[in-house]
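testing teh design pipeline on a random one, pls ignore if ur not involved
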């Protein structure tokens, strides 16, 4: 290694900063076999995975060679595709980083037609992950632009007074300001900002704009001729509780995520939980203020962009004026609201269609199939983070990891077996049990079944005693031979690192030995890795003394082992929280239960369909599962709440009213979120592509539940059907009695008037058809007024039939 660097006026080469033992750098076994002389390669046959030279030196080369081809049935190496060389550093962090950077530059400059180099350093993974994160940041403004454009287009109408482009932009701005305020507050208090938290703005924008859509939809349902105060009051009466429920449940979902055992997940959830609080505050203050200003503009019949007073469409002086200027309520045509065409589509087409029996049966059959596919998918779900997913697709590290996982997975890491208590090593029975432990580990499923791959001070010490014909019958003799004879010899000095003495060196407080391992799979198989770790841990757990098995790889394998239980625990806690909130705020408990069941169903679908799309369950998708809870509530709670509070008596009427009220805003929320994450579909990093896939499943499956599965279940709920039948039956009886009573009263009270004009009025009443009755509604009752008909029939008597009882005439 001729690479050198300069730092603080000093020059450093590899020999100056290498990890050394007894003054010598740790070398690569495959190079030592040939004594760093390429001309000796044809002269020396090497055996795989253990090479023994004529000098008696033993070299373990299993980890150095990848893609090995042997000569026949022998262990002699015929060829190998890859050779792995490692260079370990031991110096200050700054100098090591400088040398690593220079090393990477040297490898990048190297070109050969015969040799291909893939490289990796200690800081590469962190650097590449940071670079991957910054590669996504420029996409966030693009996501915001797509959300804004969709919001403007989906909310647009041909009425230039009712149209609200500026209000829509202010709604997006409200979410942006909330996110900035939340992030600024957390950064002020030095809360760690993890790379994955860079996606928070997209999520918060989606949640914030969802509340905006719902408030605007409720505003459209109010009477355009009412005062601004009354319209705002009606809007909040219908929408405030709904967005409060979803904001609270979103907050609770992320609050549960804050308790995650994975710090990256916990910090991500902290940022989102606090952001949701700010979004709620900004919606109820900043955005509602903007709604009031917009309402006053509409009350003055002013253009949505120019804010100039305009005339209604039917009074437009020209076609050009009608196309670009006209709007507002007509003075000649009765209209009570400013419904959007999409709201009317849900009311006139989707609602009635979903109320048909055959459609409901078909929906339930599709749901059963969905549950079946999802359950099967969950049973096939793969777990664990693939390190190749957190680096750029064209990164040199990804090329290195590809080769490593394909060709260097046979031999696993060395496992440290650590004795954490004082052991009487000199006693024959104790020593024999320790040797049995060695043998048990070596002959286990993941052991190499060979003493050559075990680096044990106690075994070497026993062999030393045997060769020197000594015995260690007590502690004093044992420690004397160990410290003054064994550990001072050159070939045994390395064992000093494996033994910990007390201060006066009269006792061994702890010690360790290393054992080689083997894997039985190629590539990433997290279930096998967890089994690998459990194999060694379970063996040492049965040992009579306190012992544990450790490898740095176990830190990663522990995540594989924990990810599914942690995800399920978070889901269970979140579902309980969702049920409590739903029971407290949704009027009917049965609807609360269906909301929770829907959330669980959506989670099942997301986990199941992740398998079909090749997405693994890791810390990133765990974040999406937490997101899934929040978005699931948004889709289901809104629909359930609106259905429950609908004033209509029959299930089908409730269904139509729910679609009319909430169908458009939740569709807008879903599509705008999908557009926001669409920028990640071609992300140069696999981890963000997985984020897109999982969140796409969350939104799509959640929307299907909110628009199709849940409404059908609500309308078919036994309690809902029973209540609807009883209510309709009761109201029918009341209508009949009141109709008869009103008729008699009219006949008696107007007897004298009828005598004068009986024939004329009787003739007119005979010609009044049922379709001449006009139905007017209020939140509590439905009134049937014979408006046009009675005005004509009773112009002389001023008598008007007015039925204040609900529903229909019989």
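output:
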């Amino acid at each position: 290694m001729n690479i050198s660097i300069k730092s603080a006026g000093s020059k450093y080469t590899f020999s100056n900063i290498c990890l050394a033992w007894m003054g010598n750098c740790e070398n690569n076994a495959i190079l030592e076999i040939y004594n760093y002389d390429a001309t000796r390669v044809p002269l020396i046959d090497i055996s795989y995975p253990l090479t023994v030279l004529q000098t008696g030196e033993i070299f373990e080369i299993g980890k150095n060679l990848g893609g090995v081809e042997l000569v026949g049935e022998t262990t002699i190496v015929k060829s190998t595709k890859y050779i792995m060389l490692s260079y370990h550093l031991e110096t200050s962090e700054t100098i090591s980083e400088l040398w690593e950077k220079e090393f990477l530059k040297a490898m990048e400059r190297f070109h050969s037609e015969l040799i291909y180099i893939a490289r990796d350093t200690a800081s590469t993974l962190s650097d590449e992950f940071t670079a991957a994160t910054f590669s996504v940041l420029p996409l966030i403004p693009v996501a915001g632009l797509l959300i804004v454009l969709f919001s403007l287009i989906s909310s647009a109408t041909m009425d230039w007074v009712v149209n609200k482009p500026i209000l829509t932009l202010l709604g997006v701005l409200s979410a942006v300001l909330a996110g900035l305020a939340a992030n600024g507050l957390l950064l002020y208090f030095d809360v760690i900002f993890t790379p994955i938290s860079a996606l928070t703005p997209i999520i918060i924008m989606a949640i914030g704009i969802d509340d905006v859509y719902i408030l605007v939809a409720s505003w459209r349902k109010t009477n355009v001729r009412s005062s601004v105060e009354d319209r705002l009051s009606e809007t909040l009466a219908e929408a405030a509780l709904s967005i409060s429920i979803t904001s609270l449940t979103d907050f609770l979902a992320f609050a549960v995520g804050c308790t995650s055992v994975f710090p990256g997940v916990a910090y991500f959830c902290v940022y989102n939980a606090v952001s949701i609080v700010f979004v709620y505050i900004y919606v109820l203050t900043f955005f509602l203020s903007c709604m009031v200003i917009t309402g006053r503009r509409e009350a003055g019949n002013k253009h949505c962009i120019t804010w100039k007073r305009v005339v209604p469409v039917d009074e437009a002086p020209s076609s050009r004026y009608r196309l670009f200027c006209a709007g507002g309520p007509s003075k000649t045509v009765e209209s009570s609201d400013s419904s959007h065409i999409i709201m009317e589509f849900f009311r006139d087409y989707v609602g009635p269609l979903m109320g048909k029996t055959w459609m409901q049966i078909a929906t339930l059959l599709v749901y059963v199939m969905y549950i079946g596919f999802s359950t099967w998918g969950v049973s096939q779900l793969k777990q664990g983070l693939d390190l190749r997913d957190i680096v750029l697709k064209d990164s040199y590290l990804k090329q290195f990891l590809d080769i490593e996982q394909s060709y260097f997975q046979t031999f696993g890491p060395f496992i440290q077996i650590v004795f954490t208590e004082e052991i009487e090593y000199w006693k024959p029975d104790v020593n024999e049990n320790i040797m049995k432990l060695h043998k048990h580990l070596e002959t286990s499923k993941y052991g190499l079944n060979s003493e050559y791959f075990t680096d044990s001070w106690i075994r070497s010490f026993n062999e030393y005693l045997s060769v020197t014909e000594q015995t260690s019958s007590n502690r004093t003799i044992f420690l004397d031979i160990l410290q003054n004879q064994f550990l001072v010899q050159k070939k045994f000095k390395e064992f000093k690192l494996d033994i910990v003495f007390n201060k006066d060196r009269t006792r061994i407080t702890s010690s360790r030995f290393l054992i080689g391992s083997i894997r039985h799979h190629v590539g990433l198989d997290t279930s096998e890795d967890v089994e690998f770790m459990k194999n060694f841990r379970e063996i040492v757990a049965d040992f009579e003394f306190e012992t544990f098995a450790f490898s740095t790889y176990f830190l990663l394998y522990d995540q594989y082992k924990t990810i599914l239980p942690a995800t399920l625990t978070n889901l269970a806690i979140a579902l309980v929280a969702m049920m409590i909130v739903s029971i407290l705020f949704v009027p009917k408990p049965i609807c609360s239960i269906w909301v929770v069941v829907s959330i669980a169903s959506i989670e099942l679908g997301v986990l199941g369909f992740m398998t079909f799309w090749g997405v693994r369950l890791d810390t990133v998708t765990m974040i999406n599962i937490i997101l899934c809870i929040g978005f699931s509530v948004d889709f289901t709670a809104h629909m359930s709440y609106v259905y429950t509070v609908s004033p209509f008596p029959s299930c089908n009427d409730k269904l139509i009213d729910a679609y009319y009220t909430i169908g458009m805003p939740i569709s807008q929320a879903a599509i705008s979120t999908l557009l926001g994450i669409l920028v990640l579909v071609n992300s140069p990093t696999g981890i963000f592509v997985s984020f897109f896939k999982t969140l796409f499943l969350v939104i799509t499956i959640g929307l299907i539940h909110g628009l199709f599965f849940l409404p059908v279940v609500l309308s078919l709920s036994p309690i809902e059907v029973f209540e609807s039948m009883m209510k309709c039956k009761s109201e029918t009886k009341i209508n009949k009695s009141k109709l008869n009573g009103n008729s008699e009263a009219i006949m008696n009270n107007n007897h004298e008037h009828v005598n004068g004009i009986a024939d004329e009025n009787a003739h007119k009443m005979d010609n009044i058809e049922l379709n001449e009755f006009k139905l007017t509604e209020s939140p509590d009752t439905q009134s049937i007024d014979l408006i046009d008909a009675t005005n004509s029939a009773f112009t002389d008597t001023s008598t008007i039939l007015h039925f204040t009882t609900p529903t229909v005439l019989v």
